[in-house]
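Same chain as my last thread, 430 residues:
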Amino acid sequence: MTRIAAASLAGTAIEFYDFFVYGTAAALVLGPLFFPTFSPLAGTLAAFGTFGVGFLSRPIGSVIFGHIGDRYGRRPVLFASLLLTGAATVAVGFVPAYASIGVAAPVLLLVLRFLQGLGLGGEWGGAVLLTAEHAPERRRGLWASFPQIGPSVGFLLANGVMVVLSAVLTDAQFRSWGWRVPFWAAGVLALAGLLLRTSLSETPQFKKLAETGLRARVPLIDVVRGQWRLVLLTAGALAIGYAVFYAVTTWSLAYATEQLGVDRTTMLACIMAAVAVQGAATPFTAMLGDRYGRRPMCLLGCAAAALWMFPMVALLQTAEPLLMFAGFLGALLAFITMFSVVAAYLPELYEPRVRCTGAAVGYNLGGVVGGALTPIVATTVARGDGPPWGVAVYLTAIALLSLGCFALLPETLPAAARTGTAEPPEAVPA
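reply #2:
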């Protein structure tokens, strides 16, 4: 389990590094470089629009790679998704700016961002299922949480590189070529991730399905016919997690540097410190999910997010580093209270024969609702001189939507597992 969890964590960290480095670049430099004819606000919105394309393609990637995972195994998904995301990310670093090739520059950016999203749409399902289906029932939440630490590590890697480059380069150098370095580094990370995953074995759950001939012929059709309501509920339930995370890590970065005049390096440091604490807290909140259930933790996280959005915006508006850090930390702890347990929760909700497709599609549709729209909506409603209360209203509304969706979902952790009397089963419960 340690080897499997480590490989899954490393892979998700690398893939989310690829995804996040684009978000940071969109907040800092992509607008002026690729949309120079736009006003500063319109350029930022356009850059966030290309950022959102990656979320729109993630459900498509989850369908494609989910089919592979349910038909041919979880293991092949891990290699194909990492290769696609890594190649697309490296290519972004070589796209010339608008001044060199005109409108072809933002078009290429859109295409490569779309490919990034396709790869990431498959990564989550493969990594989480590989860990969850190997794990014993009483500790499934803990073990499955390790891939969920990957986004935090990936974010810290991506922004750590950005912080170093911002510190050692002049603003002109950073805007000219420095922002490209993190994209080029993705190639080295992708190769390392592929090497780590070569020793992984297929899950016992899939082997059993293959031996008994119970694999779904077309998993997506089975999911749409029999579990469409579950997919919509999980997408709505997870929307607030994406909304909170990208409001903190992407929108607030652009807002504070452009509207509040906060130094770019200072802002990145505040966000990174909050994400580091979130990552460290992930396995501990997951263990609470093994003890008290998945659904209670998700309901608690949604409620905390709904209560914290106005304080977070108020603390951000102060432009004081420690106060902004406190605002971000509260939001991210609410986020991880939910997302640390969903890696075990979602696979348990879906039938084993369509689990890779159903869980991944639900997870990534939540990203469209919460992740793709949040930076765009937040940037739009945050115009003006006063505090951006519209952002707090928007995030609180999504939190309440997610709270309602989680309330309609069942608990999946058996009572016996919570008391420690259950034996680890061969299969994850349907």
